[in-house]
Amino acid sequence: MTTNGYHEPVAELSASTRSLHQALATVIEELEAVDWYQQRADVATDDELRAIMVHNRDEELEHAAMGLEWIRRRVPKMDEMLRTYLFTEQPIVAIEEGSHGDNKPTSGGLPEDDLGIGALDTGE
Questions:
Q1: Cα(82)–Cα(92) distance, rounded to whole angstroms?
Q2: Which of 32, 54, 67, 112 to pair with 120, CA 20 to 30 A apart?
């Protein structure tokens, strides 16, 4: 692994791949923070401190959700997967087993040229 979590030479990566890496790394960091705050809230002996930890955890959940939404909007395969699995009531594994006939294996589901993440300057 090279610096900043990259596995390949940064100069050889497209701008869209570098942006996607930033978003993925950020979501990972936010979810790690959720875990830290949850653990701290569990062991806090002071009620007010526990409330702060829970508040902080929830803020990190918000940040993670925002990052996931950015990724979903720019990576068509992620959009497809989230639409398949999120907000459903069926057993998760049953959803996956039922989708085998519809989805053929791809090279990650992303176009080779721009990773399917579209224009980075969307004006949003």
A1: 12
A2: 32
